[in-house]
Amino acid sequence: MPHDHELHQDLSQGPESGQGDCRDQEDDGRTGGLSLRDRPLPPPGPIAGRPFSDDDPLFTVIVTDYEPSVSRDFLRRKMASLAGQTCKDFEVLVYHDGPKSQSYADDMAESPMHPATEFIVTPERIGDWGHAARDLGIRAARGKFIIHTNADNIFYPNLIAVLKDALTDPQPWTFVRNPQQIRIPASAKWLARMLNLDLQAMFRNVAPIEEHSTDPDILVYAIILRGNLPVASGMFRVFETAPRQGVVFGGVPVKFNNIDAMQLVMKRSLWLAEGGWHDRRINSDAIMYPLFAGKYRVLAIPAVLGEHW
């Protein structure tokens, strides 16, 4: 049976009000969908994590939980989806935000569970949408890659297996990245206006740079967004429709409004180099993930491997 562990650590305070969904934001065409308050923050610098070892699992799954928000039936459903993975090359770290009304041993009584699972109950509630817990998980993880997920999300039985197959395939993958952004001097802009030239159009069609490697830094897989319904050019969430309705969400391109926290799987070494889950604002995943995608090799997995509830 699981054991609850009290975590004694000074956790950074985060925002306390409201709930959010990155897909509800509007893109005004000028800030890439980000308000000024949501512009990326500079990372604090590299952080230390667990020492790397040859016997580390390939993946660490970090699960964020909060009892008043996630029914225990949904938690058990989540843990059953982890226990049912056809590939067992992963560990699970479950973090509860603050004290619980009953223990995880009671929550999980007689329920299936992946054997390499640890439950951690933080001594106080932070209320920052699970960001502090994700950061703690990054620091404690042993897996070479980290998967973030909430306690009410579902993993399909082949999720870990499909991701592992992509990482261990001996045939190189093809990656593309944009050339470095070209800074146009003010004098050139003035001359272009005089000559009626569109400098941006001249550089817009520069071909991306191709790279071939068997070593992806980031994997992005598709999910079903349960309870999300199409409306005009966006989506609107109606919770009671979740059991029967939803949309397929690919996560590519990796940009604000277009990816969920559970879809991006990144190397632990890169999470540590980036300063962990350092952004604690409501849409921090939607803010940080595009920055990562712009720096590292991203492999899109063309398969629906889970569900966001």
Describe this structure in words.
This protein is α/β, with parallel strands linked by helices and 309 residues long. It has 2 domains: 4-9 and 42-171 and 214-308, Alpha-Beta Complex (Spore Coat Polysaccharide Biosynthesis Protein SpsA, Chain A); 177-213, no CATH class. 23% of the residues lie in helices and 25% in strands. It is built from 8 helices and 14 strands. Strands 1, 2, 3, 4, 5, 6, 9, 12, 13 and 14 form a 10-stranded mixed β-sheet that branches. The chain is globular. The chain starts with a strand and ends with a strand.
TL;DR?
The protein is an alpha/beta fold and 309 residues long. 23% of the residues lie in helices and 25% in strands.
Radius of gyration: 21 Å
Order of helices and strands: EEHEHEHEEHEHHEEEEEEHHE
Question: How many beta-strand segments?
Answer: 14
Write down the overall geometry.
globular
Q: Number of folding domains?
A: 2
- Mind describing the biggest β-sheet? 10 strands, mixed
Considering the protein shown, what is the CATH homologous superfamily of the largest domain? Spore Coat Polysaccharide Biosynthesis Protein SpsA, Chain A
* Low-confidence parts: 2-32
Feature tags:
single chain, 309 residues, alpha/beta, Spore Coat Polysaccharide Biosynthesis Protein SpsA, Chain A, 2 domains, ten-stranded mixed β-sheet, two-stranded antiparallel ribbon, 14 strands
